[in-house]
From TrEMBL:
Family membership: Belongs to the UxaA family.
The name this protein goes by in its record: Altronate dehydratase
Record Pfam families: GD_AH_C (PF20629), GD_AH_second (PF04295), SAF (PF08666)
Domain of life of the native organism: Bacteria
One record GO biological process: D-galacturonate catabolic process
Taxonomic lineage: Bacteria, Pseudomonadati, Pseudomonadota, Alphaproteobacteria, Hyphomicrobiales
Xref: CDD domains: SAF_AH_GD
Swiss-Prot/TrEMBL keywords: Lyase
PANTHER family named in the record: ALTRONATE DEHYDRATASE, ALTRONATE/GALACTARATE DEHYDRATASE
The keyword Lyase belongs to this UniProt entry's keyword annotation: yes
Residue stretches making up the SAF domain: 14-83
GO MF annotations, alphabetized: lyase activity
InterPro entries on file: GD_AH_C, GD_AH_second, SAF, SAF_UxaA/GarD, UxaA_altronate/galactarate_dh
């Protein structure tokens, strides 16, 4: 990667450079032999030489698409002249999977040790619903608890989180959609950031509480109660009983105290949303370096958003710890190709209007930048959406690219911390798991500083090394895991971003 004033070339083989500022027509810029024929916005691509129609456009040293028409030196390269193309299918399974050297230094954070051996970074009470029909009552219980001052008696609890959603019925009880929702709800019920759970159902839904609980202690600490509105006798009685049951789990949850724990117990879900042309240059590589540091300390990081690694999967399959892990990732890619086709879409539908305004053109380009979040560690596992992560190191969890849905799956899988990079800006949170927001560019960071926890734009504007920014993020991750509140927590986000992946027919 070589920055030179007003542009940056990311790889020696690239035939485009990236504008580091808004550039006026007629400008002569570094790396481009001819004056610019038109204005180029910051983060957008400029051809460094003449490109023939049908020729590959190269960024990051990888194919990001093909020229739809002839492109002249200095011309803007974007949706009008760059289209989707075939990409590398040379997967090289497990061919570049050298383990990262462990770090001998013992680092710790202050977390909540749970009865199942995992550690939480927060200590919430959750009111978890099995179906949309019980969502309002769950919120009524939370509101009644707040009005009654229930938590005044329990100072070690961070708050009460009603977890509501739009499904749970009108679905098959035996297909992959049901299994996905079941994993998601089970994962939240057992999550280490919840000190206690109250499960609320309607009673007649497909997602039965009796199936979720299943006669088994899904929480080893016993801090779980459940009830259905129909059995209790309606809304008012359920609110009254809910308050009583909530008090019971609060008494257990309030006994939790933060204690010193190795940072190997931190599980980070890595996300990017509202990406721009800077994402793969600044914030994502910095997060990748922080991921490597945590993995070297024995921790776990989760990459997701399968539709946003499309075209870059060959970089991950090479890092697979085994051939079988690499093949499992490609099986998910093939599933997604079929999934989009049978729903009338295609994989290149993913880049959003905001992504494109920020300089990204094809899913191949977006995916190459997104994959930079994964660092360089071997890929130790591939998991279904919401499946419990039982492997340390860097892993992948299948999910859509829709951020709230993808994060929901990561939290269900056990992520006790989220790190989220954004170029266009993001305003969201994911209770019970705290989320760190990272800006890819300094302009957006300044404009939305109330929502951003860290600026990575200074990698470009000030020449800060990616490794130094990664270490800065790594230290922030440890502080947040230990209780430091993020901007989204201070603003109160996290109450409406629970979005289970709804697969299959709604009946």
């Amino acid at each position: 990667m070589k920055a030179s004033g007003d542009t940056i070339r990311l790889h020696g083989d690239d035939n485009v450079v990236i504008a580091l500022a808004d550039l006026a027509a007629g400008s002569v810029v570094d790396g481009v032999a001819a004056p610019l024929p038109q204005t180029i916005s910051r983060g957008h691509k400029i051809a460094t030489r003449d490109v023939a129609a049908g020729e590959n456009i190269i960024r990051y040293g990888q194919i990001i698409g093909q020229a739809k028409s002839a492109i002249s030196t200095g011309e803007h390269v974007h949706v009008h002249n760059l289209g989707m193309s075939e990409h590398s299918r040379d997967y090289g399974f497990a061919s570049q999977n050298a383990k990262l050297p462990p770090i001998d230094e013992t680092r710790t954070f202050m977390g909540y040790k749970r009865a199942d051996g995992r550690y939480g970074t927060r200590n919430y009470l959750g009111i978890l619903t099995s179906v949309n029909c019980s969502g309002s009552v769950a919120k009524f219980i939370a509101e009644a608890a707040e009005k009654s001052g229930l938590l005044d008696e329990f100072p070690n609890i961070d708050g009460i989180v009603p977890i509501t959603h739009g499904t749970g019925c009108g679905m098959s009880g035996s297909n992959e959609g049901y299994a996905t929702l079941f994993r998601t709800l089970s994962g939240y019920a057992q999550h280490p950031n919840f000190g206690g759970i109250l499960l609320v159902g309607l009673g007649c839904e497909v997602m039965q509480l009796s199936d979720l609980v299943g006669g088994r202690p899904i929480r080893a600490d016993g801090a779980l109660r459940y009830m259905t509105i129909q059995h209790v006798g309606g809304t008012r009685k359920t609110i009254e009983k809910g308050l009583s049951e909530l008090r019971g789990v609060a008494e257990i949850a309030n006994q939790a105290r933060r204690e010193e724990a190795p940072i190997s117990e931190i599980v980070v879900g890595m996300q990017c949303g509202g990406s721009d042309g800077y994402s793969g240059i600044t914030a994502n590589p910095a997060l990748g370096h922080a991921s490597d540091l945590l993995v070297r300390h024995g921790g776990t990081t989760i990459l997701s958003e399968t539709s946003e690694i499309y075209g870059a999967e060959h970089l991950l399959t090479r890092r697979a710890a085994t051939v079988e892990i690499g093949e499992k990732l490609i099986e998910r890619i093939r599933w997604w190709e079929d999934y989009t086709e049978r729903n009338g879409g295609e994989m290149d539908n993913n880049p959003s209007p905001g992504n494109k305004r920020g300089g990204l053109t094809t899913i191949l380009e977006k995916s190459l930048g997104a994959t930079a979040k994964s660092g360089t560690a071997p890929l130790n596992g591939v998991y279904l959406f919401g499946e419990k992560i039982d492997t340390r190191g860097f892993v992948f969890m299948d999910s859509p690219g829709f951020d709230p849905c993808s994060v929901t799956g990561q939290v269900a899988s056990g992520a006790n911390l989220i790190v989220f990079t954004t170029g266009r800006g993001s305003v969201s949170g994911w209770k019970p798991t705290p989320g760190i927001k990272i800006a890819t560019n300094s302009e957006m960071y300044g404009r939305m500083s109330d929502d951003m926890d860290l600026n990575c734009g200074d990698i470009v504007t000030e020449g800060v090394a990616i490794e130094d920014k990664g270490r800065e993020l790594f230290e922030l991750m440890i502080r947040v895991a230990s209780g430091e509140r993020t901007k989204s927590e201070e603003l109160g986000f996290g109450g409406v971003e629970f979005v289970p992946w709804q697969i299959g027919a709604v009946m």
